[in-house]
Each structure stands twice: as structure tokens, then as C-alpha cells.
Amino acid sequence: MSNGHSITATNETETERVNTSFFQDFLSLIKIGIVNSNLFTTFTGMWLAFQFTDRNFLRELDILFYTLIGSGMIIAGSAAMNNFIDRDIDPVMKSKKGRPTVTGRFSPLAVLITSFSLLIVGEILLFLASTSAGVWGLAGIVSYVVLYSMWSKRKYVSNTIVGSISGAIPPLIGWAAVEPKLGFGALALFLIMFAWQPPHFYALAMKRTEEYRAANIPMLPVVKGFKRTKVSILLWILLLFPLPFLLMELGVIFVVLATALNLGWLYFSIKGFRVKDDIKWATGMFIYSLNYMTILFVAIIIFSIFI
């Protein structure tokens, strides 16, 4: 509707709207939220490696560039491939009906070309950072695309645990770009990320139980129910408690802060067995998990400066 505007102005507005919509569809295709969160953990692994090896990252900005851009591209490419693989089940899931693979904005061929382009260029950049970073990048791609998306997601209730492997690899990529031989700190970051993901995604799965049921995806709350899911969330949170102690080099204050975060999550987890509104509780747990990871990894970056 022009409402008195010239035809030229109207056409420019429509073109601008289409371009913006296309850009938003692209960001949806590559799951930009997942890209950003994983880049944060990649940077943390790289930063920690710089601190532990007494190297100045300002003198190695090329490694910083290759690692972050390369990691971002393989994460985006893997996400696009996941969208390609799931294009048959996404239409029945309300939360995913807006994906460009569902709306038809991106054709299957376009998604494949986009995915492989991002994966190939991303891997080239990671190998420029270091051979080890490139290899761990390949491990991340295989674990997410093959082990999770193509194999376990539709077959096993343990799919979330399998998927947690790929989610824990980004800090290893960051570390390996600086120090090819992974140190104890890299192992600690991997374990923290691995143990954090099940309670994080189980809470999300509870919110979307009916969607996963409609898509015939054997997520834990679909197969075993909410009570069993709450037990699993509790056990995984307990598993997180000793992990900050693997980073004792960051100091006692860091360990105390991490333990406080774990205690808070444990409290909300236990509280879940007495709530009447499971979905509201799951939403709160999901939000807490996001804040937990943000605060913890920011703390790792800050406290590592004082090593």
C-alpha cells in the first residue's frame, strides 16, 4: 500500500522488505543463535590456551581470525545441513515451521550448496589456524551431522547425549588452534560443555514435547515422561559439580562462583518435582541454563587474566 507515496518509493520499500526477509531466512537456515553461542565457547577455549601458554593473542590475530571465522562457518554449514536433513519433519513442528526449508524460501539444492560451501571454506580456515584445529573441526561436523542428525536423533532416546558431543567440541577447536596438544584446561571445558547440554536440552524438549511426539522423535520426555526427564536433569546437574575443580588454576573465587551456579541449578531442579506447571518450570530451567553458561564462560575468561 502506497498511501500517496510514489511508485518508485513503494518499489524500493518492497525490495528492501524482501531483502531483509531473505537475510532473516538465511540467519534462520544457519541457526545464528547456535552459531553465536558456540563461537563464544570457541573463543573461550582459544583465550584460555593463550593464557595457559603465556602467549599474547594480539601478536597472533591471524589465528584468532582463522579460528573464529572458520568455526562460525562450519557451525553454520552443519546447521544448514541439519535443516536439509530435517526438512521432512520440521513442517509438523510448530516452532520450526518458519524455517526457510519449510516455507520453500530455500530449495533443497540451495541449502546443500550453502552448507557445503560454508563447511569447505570453514575447514580451510581452521587448517590455516592449525592442523589440530582443522581435525577437531571435522570431528565436530561428523558428530553433529552424522552421529546426531542422521543417526541417533530419530532412533534413540539417548540422542541428546550423542548430540552433546558436537556441542562440546568448539572449545577444543579454539584451544587446538593455539596449542595443538590439548591441555587439561581443554578437557575441563569439553566436560563442562558436555555435561551442561543434557539438562539444557531436556528442559527445551519438555517445552516442545508434543511437537517431538508429532514428528516421531524419541526425545526423553516423549518416551519416558516428565518425571523421568526431571531425574535425568538432576543427575546431569550433579555431574557438573566436580568439573569446575578441574580449573583450579583460575583460583578459589572462580570455583566458588561455579559451585554457586551449580547449587542454584540444583535447587531449581529439585523444586521441579513439586511444581504443578511442568512447562513453566521447564521454561525457567531453560533460561537458567543459558544464564549459567554465559556467566560461567565469562568468568573463565576474566579469571584467566589473573593466572
TrEMBL record:
Any Pfam family the entry gives: UbiA
Superkingdom of origin: Bacteria
The keyword Phosphoprotein appears for this protein: no
Note: Carbon 2 of the heme B porphyrin ring is defined according to the Fischer nomenclature.
Functional note: Converts heme B (protoheme IX) to heme O by substitution of the vinyl group on carbon 2 of heme B porphyrin ring with a hydroxyethyl farnesyl side group.
Recorded family membership: Belongs to the UbiA prenyltransferase family. Protoheme IX farnesyltransferase subfamily.
Protein name: Protoheme IX farnesyltransferase
Organism: Psychrobacillus psychrodurans
